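Please think about what follows:
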Amino acid sequence: MLRARVIQSIWSTKKIDSIPSGAFLEVEVEPGGTRLVAFDVLGSGVGEAVLVTTGSVAAAWLPGDTPPIDALIIGSIDEERT
C-alpha cells in the first residue's frame, strides 16, 4: 500500500466497458515524488492524501471481469490541518 497525494484529474472521454464508474486521478507517492494514475471510486479531490494499492490486488477488488486497473485509491487519509 502506498501513501500518496492527489495532484490532478485525468480526463478521458472513452474507456472500456469493464471499468466501473469512477475517476482517473494523477497521484504523487510520498515520499519520493513518483507519479502514477490511480482509479478512484471514493470521490477524492485534488490535494487530498490517499492510500493506493497497486497490481493484481487493485484490479481484483473491482466487480466482474478483472479490468486493466493497476492502481486503485482505497482510502482517504484524515489529516489535522493547522
In short: The mean pLDDT is 88. Strands lie at 2-10, 23-29, 35-40, 49-54, 71-76. Residues 56-61 form the longest helix (6 residues).
